[in-house]
């Protein structure tokens, strides 16, 4: 199944969006909009804080499609120190760097497009986070399937070992669909509960949050 292409899947859309948000931040300190499910960020942070095997001081965290960087800001305020964010929008990185500097947090940011067949080498991480980035890749008007495959392959290479975590929140794909699409590279570790709705006697989720681990190599 493919999603219909949208401007939300284009770099131009996000460059224009973050250009506006930089102006708003510089004018009145507004860090910008949160794309779908504002509570998701705190749910993920709360879940991570409960993981006894995750050390705040040593866990290397990478936020994919970091946007304004507020997820990493939240982790930094909780004591995490090894934080990196990437986005293919230079304007997003510019905004994120400005916010982190103003909050006196040492967070690394880089411009990177992970949908290419030969992506940049970003190192390896214990936790990789995606909120809406896989969705945006899926909405790309050109070659979305190829770009999703490149993206997932790259994410697998970013995980340091089979104990590392890939945490994804999606508003376009169900958990079942993610399990099928990710099967080549990842295995499900657990689900993070998200808000539900009831319609026609059936219960569904507004968004999906799933934690994956790297599929063991044969």
TrEMBL record:
Listed GO MF terms: protein-lysine N-methyltransferase activity
Compartment(s) of residence: Cytoplasm
Annotated CDD domains: AdoMet_MTases (cd02440)
Keyword Methyltransferase: yes
Enzyme class: transferase
Enzyme Commission number: 2.1.1.-
Entries under HAMAP family matching the protein: Methyltr_EFM4
Annotated family: Belongs to the class I-like SAM-binding methyltransferase superfamily. EFM4 family.
Full protein name: Protein-lysine N-methyltransferase LOC117566420
Organism: Drosophila albomicans
Protein's gene: LOC117566420
């Amino acid at each position: 199944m493919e999603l219909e292409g949208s401007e939300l899947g284009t770099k131009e859309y996000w460059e224009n969006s973050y250009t506006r948000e930089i102006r708003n931040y510089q004018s009145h300190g507004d860090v910008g909009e949160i794309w779908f499910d504002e509570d998701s960020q705190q749910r993920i942070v709360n879940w991570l804080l409960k993981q006894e095997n995750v050390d705040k001081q040593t866990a290397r965290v990478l936020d994919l499609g970091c946007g304004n960087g507020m997820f990493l800001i939240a982790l930094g305020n909780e004591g995490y120190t090894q934080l990196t964010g990437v986005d293919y929008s230079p304007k997003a990185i510019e905004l994120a760097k400005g916010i982190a500097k103003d909050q006196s947090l040492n967070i690394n940011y880089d411009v990177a497009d992970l949908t290419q067949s030969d992506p940049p080498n970003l190192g390896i991480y214990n936790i990789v986070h995606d909120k809406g980035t896989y969705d945006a890749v899926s909405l790309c008007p050109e070659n979305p399937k190829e770009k999703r495959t490149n993206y997932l392959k790259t994410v697998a290479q970013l995980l340091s070992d089979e104990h590392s975590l890939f945490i994804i929140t999606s508003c376009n794909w169900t958990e079942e669909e993610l399990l099928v699409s990710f099967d080549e590279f990842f295995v499900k570790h657990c689900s993070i509960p998200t808000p539900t709705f009831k319609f026609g006697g059936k219960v569904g989720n507004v968004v999906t949050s799933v934690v994956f681990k790297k599929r063991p190599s044969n």
